[in-house]
């Protein structure tokens, strides 16, 4: 992949030495897939904990995991918490496995990381997402089905969710991350719109359950 990063660094391209056997090539390909969307944003133990919780419990667990301590006074923290809570609840509706939860939540986090740290444009974020989904979803060759994280239906659903939850509001997130504290105070009305949007997503998920 060309652009995507994790908080720990870039995702390197696989290097297959000359003269390898088909078996060793498959092993190398599997190891490369293991690096995709790593390190995990949430551990398997944390995800398992949240799966046993109701919506309020999920929110409290994520608040603890993210070390958010100023939710009552910091609208930015409130917006980010709802971003992750909404994503987790949506994934629960998809009945993902723990590994799928892990990769999906890491994907949510990396998209924000790329925006916040690399100042990645909307166009580049969409391109990066396409590259990630191509590597985590079914490949044309199907040489190593075990390395697929999402099937075609799930991959398309993930992309559709990210369109409405992040990409449609990309400029608002840019404002959230790039603005000074004074500008954020002035632009509280804009940030409130993001917050209210995620509340609507949560309400919709509750009604569907």
TrEMBL record:
Residues 1-28 are annotated as: Disordered. Coiled coil: none annotated. InterPro entries: CLAMP. It holds the Pfam family CLAMP. Residues 1-22 have a biased composition (Low complexity). This is Ciliary-associated calcium-binding coiled-coil protein 1 isoform X3. It comes from Mustela putorius furo.
